[in-house]
């Protein structure tokens, strides 16, 4: 099921009469770019269904087989594209060969607070302040111009060539490096995102990220580094001592600074990278239906630029949104 925009194109999420997206997680419609990426995945699923029908898959098997193929190809992208880019090839090769050192579960896999409320928020620092959306000239600050929770008009449909390398003739907009600087627009989030609040600081994503870690009493970055056997950043590297701060570093800030100091912001450092990669791989390994469990020798079967591989750019091309 897809949504139809004002010119009759299937280029929006399905919505109710109030304009609210009919999706499992309403946060996927908070922002235009995320909303359009969700739409791309819907189209990817539908294209897989079409392919299976063309191949003569029995009607009663089409949905389950499409679900498996969509999930496995997405899982492959996470393990073989997203994570190497985010944590570096060396750490990923070590994890794929030797497995996790710290992420463990007894019966059911879980998402640790250190991941959800600190490490995996590293992407907040990679968001640009302003984006070009398509060749029609649509541009805007990430907030409020690209805020979601409303129908997407024809003029603001995303052209994914502006975000991913899809052809040799168009250079996409690069994300920011991972560092302790957030885009100005993220320090002034609209009320539609944060809700009504009498605390002005709640409109700052940096404040909200740091407050979350404090509320959950997350360990300091240096504490986790020592536990992992990693040399912690020095106080002068962190830089908060220059502002009069004398304690150890909040985990969210530490992970951003570690990437900046140790890897020039190109990918996460040892602490942040290991938390992110071990949890995501651990969740895959804890799912008996994931490709890593059901068929560890499996490689992507849908057409990609390289045989036996599948990237997000391949997904967008296959879904006919690029």
Structure description:
The chain is built from twelve helices and two strands. It has 322 residues and is mostly helical. The longest helix has 29 residues, at 59-87. It has a two-stranded antiparallel ribbon. It starts with 31 loop residues before the first helix and ends with a helix. The protein has helices spanning 32-54, 59-87, 89-98, 113-116, 191-194, 205-215, 221-228, 235-238, 251-263, 270-285, 291-294, 312-318, and strands spanning 130-132, 139-141. The model has no long low-confidence stretch (mean pLDDT 96). It is globular, with a radius of gyration of 21 Å. The chain is 41% helix and 2% strand. The protein has one domain (26-307): Haem peroxidase domain superfamily, animal type (Myeloperoxidase, subunit C).
List the helices and strands and how they pair.
Blueprint lengths: L31 H23 L4 H29 L1 H10 L14 H4 L13 E3 L6 E3 L49 H4 L10 H11 L5 H8 L6 H4 L12 H13 L6 H16 L5 H4 L17 H7 L4
Antiparallel strand pairs: 1-2
Helix pairs in contact: 1-2, 2-3, 2-10, 9-10
Which terms would index this structure?
322 residues; mainly alpha; Myeloperoxidase, subunit C; 12 helices; globular
Specify Rg, calculated over alpha carbons: 21 Å
Strand count, sense and barrel status of the largest sheet are: 2 strands, antiparallel
CATH class: Mainly Alpha
Strands, total number: 2
As residue ranges, the low-confidence spans are none
CATH homologous superfamily annotation: Haem peroxidase domain superfamily, animal type
Tally of helical runs: 12
> Could you tell me the mean pLDDT?
96
User: Within the largest sheet, what's the order of strands?
Assistant: 1-2
Under the CATH scheme, the architecture is Orthogonal Bundle
Report how far the terminal alpha carbons are from each other.
20 Å
- Helix percentage range: 40-55%
